[in-house]
Recover the amino acids of this structure.
């Protein structure tokens, strides 16, 4: 880790004095109060500590005046965010200027003094934190009043029969877990980052090999040895890491929507029908209001929200029964988020079973009929959507039991 | 509609550069040797390209799929020796061809096995095969070339249809068929998808391992066919033949606009690349450049190909950035 610091102590031959470098690193680490050893490799650290190393690297520069954080909490859990904020407070106390880029309102409220608001690539205004209320800021960001976005949703409270039953499913990455999902239900999955939510879903769709357990769809036992088989059974996953696992960056919007439809779109000889592809792409773009100048645009040229809509369009076009959304609104602006919320409710209304993994507590609470909480690769509890509170979910996710404050 | 039009012109822009490079090479060598631009010499270039052409088609598939193959030279030599040996042992020509192609399939499948199951890097995995198969090429014939006397076998190397040698026809047919498969079919689409991002393609319901296996076995078949034709042209199966074959083929493919990044390129570019590299190689011989310098020149050409690949990649990224800025 020592080697991460920019200004290395070196003798006149340019040979680095490792001992001294470690010493310098140790001092900074102590200043920050972190349990890291200077000789540890950065790759062995958890993400939050890797970020801390980045911050310390910047901090080790003598002439540091401004530090910019670009959405630093995107991959951090709540306790890790606390740690980051402590550091930011410390830097601020030392007179450093902090620029903090984020779309998480609660963080902005907590950590900032002033907020500069941007909308669609343009500067809107700078306001004092705490003086201008949150909904006012959101209005400035989206150009309209979101109100209570969760209350206005067109929710369908009718839950159908059991659709998916997961019995003692485990993989190399997650312990044995069981749960059921009903038709027309939005089932939330809450928990800290790394609690095993993604891994459980990957085992169910066959992305990781299932080691134990059984999956029943509409009462019939099914076996998914690959995401392809899961797709054929009607279970599909919109992955968490859109860039690396969702979009096919080298292909167009149309290709990205059609990639899971190749079987339906081609004849016996395997020739793909351009007309069928064009039709499916057009439908997807229209149904999900994907903003693109043309279906032939490369998907990476679209905004994050529109890319995500393409992935959802891809799966909905295969007529799935179970739709698994893993952090579907991560890194997406507030306006597109509310569109996704309406979409999710719409899917449930149409009778799909929706599994919603989200680290944003208001989102899971606002959308889910039931919420399952995971901790340390195990399901630790289940909360009814109507009775769920942030503190309930948090205490379940962090200590494994409900302790109402 | 409008953007689609623009997109097409943009592709042909890259092709135009390649075409210009081709013209430049032809003008250069014609200026240095009057006999360069003659029908007979053009046919010679095509004959010489027939083996590289087949292998380059295989490389187009593999490199777009994010893979690579360094074993074609060895496999082609092995196939030539094996076919010649089988025929000399009294096995009918077509049976010998079939058996040889089956060996090619096995070698391709072995490459795929190493890449898919042992999770080796394609470069390293196929380097293993390169060495092993070259070894077997020597082992099965005891190190001595096996001469070809079977009439059909010899005819494969000599016969012409409409003035054009059969070897060239076979290359052309393969290029057309595999070109259409790549551009128009489900399988072709899947290759682009897995080349761009294997994980994402798998999560989207494709089967990358199966697609990769098909690409490698296809390459095995192409190398075997090419090796048999080469032996027919030489009247013997030579265990030491076709060294650096993959080198030329990869150069042609990269020149043609396929990128090592994966997921980018097409067969049309590869055709232009094949013509360029073979005209270049033939030209060097015709203007009496000493053989040892050929290696240097080919290295230079590969460097040029890689540099242009890099520059195209930079341009793609720049265009992308500009486009996403505009979208805001």
């Amino acid at each position: 880790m020592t080697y991460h610091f920019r200004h290395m102590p070196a003798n006149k031959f340019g040979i680095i004095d490792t001992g001294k470098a470690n010493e310098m690193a140790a001092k900074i680490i102590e200043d920050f109060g972190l349990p890291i050893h200077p000789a540890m490799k950065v790759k062995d650290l958890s993400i939050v500590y890797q970020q801390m190393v980045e911050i310390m690297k910047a901090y080790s520069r003598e002439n540091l005046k401004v530090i910019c954080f670009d959405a630093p909490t995107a991959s951090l859990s709540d306790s890790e965010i606390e740690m980051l904020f402590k550091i930011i407070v410390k830097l601020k106390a030392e007179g450093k200027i902090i620029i903090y880029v984020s779309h998480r309102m609660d963080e902005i409220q907590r950590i900032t003094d002033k907020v500069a608001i941007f909308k669609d690539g343009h500067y809107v205004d700078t306001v004092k934190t705490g003086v201008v209320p949150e909904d006012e800021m959101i209005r400035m960001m989206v150009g309209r009043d979101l109100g209570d976005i969760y209350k206005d949703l067109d929710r369908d409270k009718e839950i159908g029969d059991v659709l998916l039953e997961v019995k003692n499913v485990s993989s190399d990455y997650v312990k044995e877990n069981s749960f059921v999902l009903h038709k027309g239900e939005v089932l939330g999955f809450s928990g800290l980052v790394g609690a095993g939510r993604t891994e459980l879903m990957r085992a169910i769709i066959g992305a990781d090999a299932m080691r134990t357990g059984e999956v029943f769809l509409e009462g019939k036992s099914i076996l998914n040895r690959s995401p392809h088989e899961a797709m054929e059974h009607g279970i599909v996953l919109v992955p968490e890491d859109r860039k690396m696992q969702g979009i096919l960056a080298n292909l167009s919007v149309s290709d990205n929507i059609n990639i899971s439809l190749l079987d339906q779109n081609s004849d016996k000889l395997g020739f793909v029908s351009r007309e069928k592809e064009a039709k499916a792409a057009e439908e997807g773009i229209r149904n999900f209001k994907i903003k693109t100048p043309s279906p032939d645009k490369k998907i990476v040229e679209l905004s994050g929200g529109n890319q995500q809509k393409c992935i959802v369009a891809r799966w909905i076009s295969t007529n799935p029964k179970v739709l698994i959304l893993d952090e579907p609104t991560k890194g997406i602006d507030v306006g597109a988020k509310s569109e996704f919320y309406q979409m999710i409710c719409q899917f449930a209304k149409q009778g799909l079973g929706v599994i919603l993994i989200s680290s944003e507590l208001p989102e899971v609470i606002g959308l889910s009929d039931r919420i399952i909480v995971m901790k340390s690769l195990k399901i630790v509890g289940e909360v009814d959507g109507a009775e769920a509170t942030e503190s309930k979910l948090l205490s379940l996710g962090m200590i494994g039991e409900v302790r109402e404050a | 509609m409008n953007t689609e039009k623009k997109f097409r012109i943009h592709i042909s822009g890259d092709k135009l550069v390649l075409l210009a490079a081709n013209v430049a090479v032809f003008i250069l060598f014609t200026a240095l040797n009057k006999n360069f631009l003659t029908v007979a010499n053009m046919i010679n270039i095509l004959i010489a390209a027939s083996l590289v052409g087949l292998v380059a088609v295989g490389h187009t598939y593999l490199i777009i799929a994010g893979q690579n193959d360094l074993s074609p030279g060895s496999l082609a030599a092995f196939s030539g020796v094996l076919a010649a040996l089988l025929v000399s042992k009294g096995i009918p020509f077509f049976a010998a061809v079939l058996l040889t192609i089956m060996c090619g399939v096995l070698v391709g499948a072995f490459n795929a096995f190493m890449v898919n199951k042992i999770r080796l890097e394609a470069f390293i995995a196929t380097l293993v095969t390169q060495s092993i198969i070259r070894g077997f090429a020597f082992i099965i014939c005891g190190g001595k070339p096996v001469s070809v006397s079977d009439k059909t076998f010899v005819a494969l190397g000599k016969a012409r249809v409409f003035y054009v040698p059969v070897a060239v026809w076979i290359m052309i047919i393969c290029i057309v068929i595999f070109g259409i498969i790549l551009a128009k079919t489900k399988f072709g689409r899947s290759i682009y998808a897995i080349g761009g991002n294997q994980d994402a393609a798998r999560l989207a319901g494709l089967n990358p391992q199966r697609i990769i296996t098909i690409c490698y076995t296809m390459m095995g078949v192409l190398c075997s066919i090419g090796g048999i034709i080469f032996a027919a042209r030489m009247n013997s199966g030579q265990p030491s033949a076709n060294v650096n074959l993959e080198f030329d083929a990869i150069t042609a493919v990269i020149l043609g606009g396929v990128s090592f990044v994966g997921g980018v390129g097409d067969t049309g570019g590869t055709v232009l690349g094949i013509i360029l590299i073979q005209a270049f190689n033939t030209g060097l011989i015709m203007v009496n450049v000493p053989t040892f310098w050929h290696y240097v020149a080919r290295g230079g050409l590969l460097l040029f190909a890689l540099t242009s690949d890099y520059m195209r990649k930079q341009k793609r990224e720049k265009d992308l950035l500009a486009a996403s800025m505009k979208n805001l």
